[in-house]
Every structure is written in C-alpha cells, then in structure tokens.
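Hey, quick one: can you model this chain's 3D structure?
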Amino acid sequence: MRLRRLLHEMNLLDLHNATPLLSDNQGSLALASNPNHHRRTKHIDVRYHFIRAAVTNNTVDLRYTPTAEQTADILTKGLAGPLHWEHCKRMGLRVGGRRGGTATGDGGR
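Sure thing. Here's the predicted structure for all 109 residues.
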C-alpha cells in the first residue's frame, strides 16, 4: 500500500485502479476472496485478513497465474534454463547485450 501511495505521488499510478496481485495458490486466493469465516480459518494469520480487506475496498485485484508463468519465481527459486531466460525476458532484463538472453541460456555470447 505504501508503494501505491508513492507511485501515486509521483503521478505514475491512478489510485482508482486496483493493483493486480498474482498468485499460483488457489487456496489462498479463495481464502482471501471469500468473506465467510469457516471453522478451519479462525486462526488464519492477520495478513490474510489484510488482503481480504484490500480486495473488498478494491485496492488489490487477486488473479490466478499458473506456476510456470510466475515471473517473481526467478527472484526466489532456481529455475531451469529456458524458464529462467523466459522470466528474464518478461522482466525486460538485458543479458549479454540482448533482451532476455537466449533460449540456450548463453546470454547471447
């Protein structure tokens, strides 16, 4: 939420639009989107209630993204070469003078 405000102050974001939040965990998306409390969810961490409130007031837009398309995984996991280079390309990284490197992983060298 702080980043949203900062981007708004820099005139780079319209606060009337929800920020997309991509996840490959369908269970967490269902929990954050469903306003009903269930017996099993009464001890859920506060952060999920925070996200639920953000969804309710249209601050964030939760979206399912398949695991293979989770570009953020490049920052947290060791990925196979082709998937690594695909995520580099999606982030607009330049590797070896070429955008996103090559499918062989040699960085265009």
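One thing worth noting: The chain has a mean pLDDT of 78.
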